Amino acid sequence: MTDTAPTSDVEAEEGRLRRHLGVGGLSAIGFSNIVGSGWLFAALYAAQIAGPAALVAWLVAGVLVTLVALVMVELGATRPEGGGTVRWPLYASGRLTGTVIGFSVLLSVGATSAELTAIVQYAGYYLPWLYVDDALTGAGVVFAIVLSVVLTALNWFGVKLFGRVNTAVTVVKVAVPLLTVVLLLASGFDSARLTDHGGFAPYGWSAVLSALAGGGIVYSLNGFQAPVDFSGEARNPQRTVPLAVLGSIGLALLLYLGLQLAFLGAVPDDALGAGWQGVHFESPFGQLAVALNLGFLAAVLYGDAVVSPGGSAFVGVAVDARHTYALAKNRLLPRALMAVHPSSGIPRRALLLNLAVIVVYLLPFSGWQSIVSVMGTLYLLLYLAAAVAAEVFRRREPERLSGWVPGLRIITPVSFVLATLFVYWSGFSDLRLALPLTLIGVPLFVILWRRDREGSLVEELRRGAWLVVHLLVLTLLSGLGSFDGAGVLPAPWDTVVVAVWAAVVFPVAVRSGVREPVLAS
């Protein structure tokens, strides 16, 4: 089967990318994409569910996320390409899978607009006329649009400038949480709180598993795939991409563990009268700072509440541009968007399209924001598609294995199961909108096939049927399950059912890809 765009054209544009990013720049991209404003609340939510045992939940989450990330490490090291996470599903599983996953990525641009909205919301602490009644005002929308233009402009002039700016922002994003940890440990930490008030695991060890999803712990560590999408602009990607992905996860995990420990030890005893479940703060670390007479830290935290999502949005704009560029290579978008500007090495047309999409997402249409808020869930589908792709490539071309991931044959099915659980744990309130929107990719594929007439329509539908069925069953199980669903499948058995279902689907998905020859890259 031939590639979805002539190889010469794709390679010509890929060759214009500037390979300037090293381990430091790529790691900063990964870290900035993982750690947004959520760090201000994750410790609170985890403590409410698991108490001090939330520390164990972070460690478990680190292991789970690393297992999923190892698949990205292998793919990024052996098949570096701009927007690679969008390309691999097409190479491995055909055009139907590539179109559905690609369409979900296109929709997930809404996650960047959500970060911009968060920036304006936090800025409303200082400028209250920007955000009123849980919504952007007219002035707030204008402010967010101007900010999106600024972030686009900073991405306009080359990946080297982007890397330098992001590294500077990342330093701030590391420094403020680290300062918070140090000051809280020095000023208000009491180790007795780790065992008093019901013990280290006051709600049982099952609560540790509940905190992985319900406490937002797993989601706080997501976003590690960003360095992989820059693999086409990395120096020596076989070395730099794996180090950046794993390094950014490790740094983020250490930071979250420090924040969790500092929070647990600094909560006043009078706030624990009803146990950890009764602890409530609107601004957890800010209020703790004020209680400990660290007023300047509270001011810094409110400022960082603007900087952190700003850094994430900055990376999001860049990643979205690489995705759009890759979707044009896939022919899901017009080929003109595949163009890379010769002197800057930036896919500027893709960058402009994403700016237009972000602006549309920011407009206050009735009911629009409730849809936009779930778009970030869609990028999780990349993880499960990548697991299938890695196993397909391992079987097709075992000689190309990087050596970074020993035991890949075992890791890929585990990664697929975990990625499926990450999607399921998003909850029915998100999935009931996100997954049906994603399935619009099926009729879109048929339309594109009628235009290009490449290969057999029946064969392509057969090859990608596993993904369609998987998403439909996931929607059904989510509606029946305990994560915002009807509760017909109670916890933890709903998670077990979903895991078993994923384990059944994985070999079917792999066989559908292995039967066909590899696509030209």
TrEMBL record:
This is APC family permease. Gene3D superfamilies: Amino acid/polyamine transporter I. It is found in: Membrane. Keywords: Membrane, Transmembrane, Transmembrane helix. It is a multi-pass membrane protein. It holds the Pfam family AA_permease_2. The chain crosses the membrane at residues 21-47, 53-75, 96-123, 135-157, 169-189, 201-222, 243-265, 351-368, 374-393, 405-425, 431-449, 461-483, 495-514. The keyword Nucleotide-binding does not apply. The keyword Nucleotide-binding does not apply.
